[in-house]
Amino acid sequence: MKHWSTQLTASVKALSVAALIGTSSAALAVDGNTLLNADKDPNNWLTYHGSYKSWHYSDLGQINAANVKNLKVSWVHTPSASKRGVQSFPLAVDGVLYYTSASGQVWALDGATGEVKWKYSAKLDQERSEGTFYNPYNRGIAIGYGNVYMGTTDGRVIALDMNTGKVVWDKMILTVEGGNKGFTGAPVLVKDMIVIGSNGGELSGCCGPIFAVDAKTGEVRWQFDTIGGDERSRASWGNDSWKTGGGGGWMTGTYDAVTNSIWWGTANPAPDYDWGGDDWKTSGARPGDNLYSSSVVVLNADTGELKSWFQEMPHDAWDFDSAVGEFMSIERGGKRYMVHPNKGGIMFVYNADPSHAPLKIENAYMTGKTFNYIKGVDAKTGQLIGRRELPEGKHTNVCPAIDGATSWNTGAYNPNTGLMYKVGQEWCFDIEVVKADPPPAFSGQAYFGASWTSTHPEGRKAFGYVTARDPISGTIKWEKEYKYPPLASLLATKGNLVFVPGANGVFEALDARSGATLWSHNNGIGHHGGVISYTAKGKQYVAVVTGWGSHVAGNYCPLFGEPFCSMPTDAGQLLVFALP
Amino acid sequence: MKVATMTMRGCLLVLASLTVGSAGGVLAADDINPASETAKPTEPAAAPEKPKIDIRKLFATNCSWCHQDYGMKAADGPKLAGTSMTEEQLIEQISRGKSPMPGFRKTLSKEQIEALAKYIKGLKDPGN
Hints:
The complex is a heterodimer of chains A (about 575) and B (about 130). Chain A is mainly beta. In chain A, the strands form 10 sheets. Chain A has a 5-stranded mixed beta sheet with strand order 1-32-33-34-35, with no helix packed on it. Mean pLDDT of chain A is about 95; it is low at about 1-25. Chain B is mostly helical. Chain B has a domain at about 50-130: Cytochrome c-like domain (Cytochrome Bc1 Complex, Chain D, domain 2), CATH 1.10.760.10. Helices cover about 30% and strands about 0% of the residues of chain B. Chain B contains 4 helices and no strands. Chain B is globular.
């Protein structure tokens, strides 16, 4: 299995044959090669971002702008109590749907009927899991080599037989000595490895690792430390502050086969917030740039060695991770781009060639509107312009709030319209920064010092929107405003639809060309997870997860009142829609 | 260490030895109930003078991630001002946590937890 790229054409052929057969009974053997062409296989949803291109696009058109008004609930699955809702992305292989609910529960369901094929419930070290702020999130799985792979909040990766749900291997990957961190993000299958990043931006301790694990055995192939792993990083944290520095890569990155590279976004530095203020280059809690926190890192997929990077938030003073969102791979005019959102409401358009180090910026534009933490971003260099530091003391009307101008869920791209669809959110906060004492090095204890109150932007209520724009230039084609900022991922389909799972429970289909609302259905509780499309027995389905409750969702009651104050935070479902 | 099942006074000293005290408010020797002297295993490093617990800092460095405005506003965690919990129940909740709230018995001292419980009990409900 050495010549991955040369197998590409062969497997494209194999896939087009499979596509002709449609949903045949011959089981699809998913491996690293299958995933290279996941974007050409609309019947299945094989990986978190849909394919390595991270378009969140389905090339199925049975459900389309003309007939979506007839879309109905086909079946529903209710998992056991899911604290903080269901936040994961379902995957679909050969008409079987796999998804996770909170606390590491995995479900395999018949994609046409919802009939339960198997269920797996991870036995977690509750004490360790509950020690983090991110308990009991689980944001999804990877599939390959006959297995379903899941990370756990207590630092393990588990492989389950995809036919039976039986444990194939179960390995402690992130030991507690490395800090009380774990995994909440979905792993991604790359070649014959599972790649997964740890959480813990605001947990003291290094080194916020990203792991590649052998898909067949669970052995760690390589580990990349997002902070403190090399001299360049250590030199960018004065007073050895990298030892309590946070970092991590809590969301799912992607793989670029052309350059054999893993692209991954990293978490914020600890502490949140740096009381040092203006003199952050030389003093404060973590003097310096704090590499590679709030950065994009590009790694050699075989070795984990750093090829290139770009720090989106040098010395992140606001908790604006780069871990959020997707790496959209776009080719235009013979040039290859990686488009990546940052939580601070900036879209970074990178040249996909990692031989530029740091990465070459092709464009950078603000997606946020009411921001005042910076004055803007330099489109040519990607550098922040006019920073507003948050030194010890009180600061009012800081925008956006810690929750960001974009959250961790993904946008979508439709290659036919050439438009990228992305959620934005506008809110602010008043914050008092307090000088936190550093916890013991490597302890994994929370390391932050601030108290805040969510507020509305000056002159208007907090709000959200879905924007359709050219991903490279940022030019807006249309925008639809939402009273309550959506928090879930979006789905674009060949049927000229954009599916928007709303915060208030309303699930909508918009016209991809105009933003007009073509269909909506109230799912009865907010959404902040994934949405996909797949086929079972030749029929197209759209699956979305529901459920509410999280650090960001917690602001909706104080900002908007009902329906959020009475919305349960321990429930959620999987709803599947189809045409009659 | 099940804090709640032990009488508060009696377990002070046992808990004292577990003090990590990373968030300020180091345990002071004269906080300790002399009646429990015999139950004391090893004395933590004696503090030369009694430092006052800085409650705002303690709250801002441990709780405010989820409890906004020093406990006055609801967010990810509920508003704490006006809670119907007794001081003992508050100590129990802070010590043991309640998913998704982490427990703090390993990272905060008994005194710090008690101080937080007192502080919360003393908060006036703004009624929002």
